Amino acid sequence: MPKVIRVKPALSSDSGDPRPRKGPQLPPHHEALEQPRSQIESPVLWLCEGPTQTPCDGAVAPKAFPSLFPNLSSPPLPCPALPTAPVGRGSAAPRQHRCGRAGRSRSRQRQAGSAGRGAGGEAPGSPCPALALQPPAFGFLFDVDGVLVRGSQPVPAARRAFQRLADGGGRMRVPVAFLTNAGNCLRSAKARELSQALGLQVSPEQVILSHSPLQLFRQFHQRCMLVAGQGPLEENAHNLGFKNVVTIEALRKAYPLLDMVDLSRRPKELPPPTTGFPTIEGVILFGEPVRWETSLQLIADVLLSNGNPGAELQDVPYPHLPILACNMDLLWMAEAKMPRFGHGTFLLCLESIYKKVTGKELKYEALIGKPSPITYRYAQYLIQQQAEKQGWKAPIRRLYAVGDNPMSDVYGANLYNNYLKSAQQNQGQAGLKRSPQAASPQAELSLELRNDCNSSVESCESILVCTGVYRHDGAVPKKTVETVFHGHRDFSFDPSLLEASHIVQDVDDAVQLVFKKENWS
To answer: Which of 223, 366, 422, 459 has a 20 to 30 Å separation from 251 between CA atoms?
Structure first.
């Protein structure tokens, strides 16, 4: 049973290791593979060649993760630099302490800064924090929707939480990453939204969208890929390294007879035959589209025709074209009182239609975004790079994943925690089982973290808040009770992985809980 702590701003430590989870099982495209230790190379941060030597957008050596991605080519990963300039006017002013002192003296501020910590005070009426001189040995992975915001509205506790996390100049005192399954936007746009909601500057390099790890799938970057979703699809695809993409709308215009559900969009006259349209070689599902019926129809056409939707249907090709899918959330929380359908619901529709039409299972080359361990390993690396950039010498030992969705946030953090624990115990494959619906070998990803000699992280604890998908009546419950499995088809149902390490009311309580456990203020 998870330990429940009702948080108060105390400074005493609360020991207790997270309970190891049992029986993790992954979808076939995440099966563990053996790899010799001699192949491991240390992650390297590349810098721009200009005079400023500042980190750039593609900043990690190609072989940064050989133990995690043995079958993938080696593209650059984004530089996880934190903002170094103070935030805008009004947010960096010293705040009064409850005891009447303004900020700390400048000399003490410089002393604290040299120790790797800011010296900013708390808002009026809050207790004075003690000055912690040790560098942080932990980092935060924050979900966004339902934890920090509800739709376009910030959760009231979010700003209080980040006042604790930031120093007087608006810089993070501990490494922080925003791990969201959103994908219908640019990282820079999501960073601006978070900056406005939280009242401090968030760097795009701190934001991990559901599709961010797609830059690792370099073997598909030169193919002609059909992209589905909404928002800046082509720009996102190009930023991830894909050179040749076709949108659903471009496909519909090239083959107007394919989209027949909406009577008003049917052509009035028979169009001439389409010529010169490229053969589609794969599909990227970024997120839920606007017109589901159009996307479902045209994606099915592409799969059934082997990339030539204008051709007559003959033998159904199987295996079908590769599919890369981002964001498996069945539901998500916005301003409405009830959860909304997410991209996981769209995937469920596509899988059902394909199986009904062909009698065969739809396969994925990769499923990424939470709860995929690929996403958490990617986030861990960014957290560690943030700490190094800030000059914090202590290795990051513990991650705290704060979320509102038991199936994506809690399940994902617990699953990754299992692999961290198995790596420490040198247990190898940790009881993985291969699914009958196995993906192709090139998409299988190794999670042999014991081979990653540079990984210092020992645990990833899940903290569930009650401001989003997961809700409760009355007192904060002691455990999550999930009677219906909302996870993706390719992830095995393990009830223990849905039990959060801690359940708190909101994100501010989560930050206070972690500070108490870490004896940090």
So the answer is: 366
31 and 444 Cβ atoms separated by less than 8 Å: yes
Helix or strand or coil: residue 391? Answer: coil
Beta-strand ranges (E) seen in 298-452 are 323-326, 331-332, 340-341, 366-368, 398-403
Q: How far is CA 461 from CA 17, 22, 155, 363, 376, in A?
A: 9, 14, 22, 31, 12
Closest CA to 252 of 286, 288, 301: 301
Instruction: List phi, psi (to 5°) of 380.
Output: -60, -45
pTM beyond 0.85, yes or no: no
Structural element, H or E, at residue 56: strand 55-60
Strands 55-60 and 45-47: antiparallel
Number of H helices, E strands in the chain: 10, 17
Q: Residue for token digits 């050989």?
A: 66
Residue type, 26: L
CA distance 106 to 172: 19
Which amino acid makes up residue 38? S
Please state, in angstroms and rounded to a whole number, the distance separating the CA atoms of residues 143 and 166.
Answer: 18
Query: Which of 358, 341, 369, 349 has the alpha carbon at shortest distance from 27?
Result: 369
Say if strands 149-150 and 153-154 run parallel, antiparallel, or are unpaired. antiparallel
The b/e string for 15-41 (b: 16+ C-beta within 10 A; e otherwise) is eeebbebeebbbbbbbbbeebeeeeee
The tens place of each residue's pLDDT in the chain, 521 residues long, gives 444 444 443 333 334 444 444 444 444 444 333 333 333 333 322 323 333 333 333 333 333 344 444 344 433 343 333 333 333 333 333 333 333 333 333 334 444 443 434 333 344 334 334 445 689 999 999 999 999 999 889 999 999 999 999 998 888 999 999 999 999 999 999 999 999 999 999 999 999 999 999 988 999 999 999 999 999 999 999 999 999 999 999 999 999 999 998 888 888 888 888 889 999 999 999 999 999 999 999 999 999 999 999 888 788 999 999 999 999 999 988 889 898 999 999 999 999 999 999 999 999 999 999 999 989 999 998 999 999 999 998 899 999 999 999 999 999 999 999 989 988 776 444 433 333 333 333 334 444 333 444 578 999 999 999 999 887 755 555 565 556 888 899 998 888 999 999 999 999 999 999 999 999 87
Half-sphere exposure at residue 215, Cβ-oriented, CA atoms within 13 angstroms: 21
Angle, to 10 degrees, between the axis of helix 156-165 and the axis of helix 507-517?
A: 30
